[in-house]
Write a structure and sequence with these properties.
The chain is an alpha+beta fold. The chain has one domain (23-203). The chain is 21% helix and 35% strand. It has 5 helices and 14 strands. The protein has helices spanning 4-18, 56-60, 103-109, 113-123, 128-131; strands spanning 23-24, 31-33, 35-38, 41-45, 49-54, 66-75, 81-84, 88-91, 96-99, 138-139, 157-160, 164-173, 182-188, 197-203. A 6-stranded mixed sheet has the order 1-9-8-13-14-2. The longest helix has 15 residues, at 4-18. The chain is globular.
Length: 204
């Protein structure tokens, strides 16, 4: 018969295996729900930042192991922020947190990079109406994921200066419950904010 302590250890180990790839945490509390500013575009802003999340491509990739989000981040007055594959996270309705995949992992397990980038080049990342208010902001060059399978230029970090902005197509693992009809959160965790910021949006 298994001893109680060993039984508990076994259960905890099993839960850790089930949770591989995501970590359950409580809500961060900073940030809030973004406003829908277009059919597939959500916008949130305060005195420091404006963040746009576009879900049009995500809706088309709901059956894939990974899905893209179009994002824009305008830095109004913070010191230079650094956005990379570790500072942007996805939080699902169960408060499970999903980090971005590596470039290699995505290239091996997801075969829609070319059509995704073709779609983005034709439609752009929505939320342009809010970005017109920052037309004098300087765009930060960067691409966290390649445009083609197994190759293409990428960067590890995007530097967004004060009165600057970035836009990119970023990828996350598909949450256990899927994304259709779900309210998700994009979490930005940069030093200058003091604590992570969650922006809630919905994929209908």
């Amino acid at each position: 018969m298994m001893r109680p302590k060993l039984q508990v250890l076994s259960i905890l180990l099993g839960l850790a295996v089930l949770a591989a790839g995501c970590v359950t945490v409580g809500p961060e509390g900073k940030g809030g729900e973004a406003s829908r500013t277009a059919s597939f575009s959500y916008t949130w802003q305060d005195t420091n930042l404006a963040i746009v999340v576009d879900v049009e491509l995500a809706r088309r990739r709901a059956e894939e192991p990974y899905f893209p989000l179009g994002i824009k981040i305008a830095n109004k007055r913070l010191n230079r922020i650094i956005v990379d594959r570790e500072t942007l996270l996805l939080v699902d309705e169960a408060n499970a947190v999903y980090p971005m995949p590596s470039v290699e992992e995505l290239s091996l397990q997801y075969d829609k990079l070319v059509p995704d980038n073709k779609f983005k080049s034709q439609t752009g990342v929505l939320g342009d109406q809010i970005m017109t208010g920052f037309s004098y902001f300087r765009k930060a060059e960067g691409r966290l994921f390649p445009q083609t399978q197994g190759g293409g230029r990428t960067v590890d970090s995007i530097y967004v200066q004060t009165k600057g902005y970035m836009e990119d197509l970023v990828y996350f693992p598909m949450p256990a419950g899927g994304i259709k009809g779900k309210t998700l959160r994009l979490r930005l965790n940069v030093y200058e904010l003091g604590k992570p910021l969650d922006v809630a949006f919905r994929v209908d």
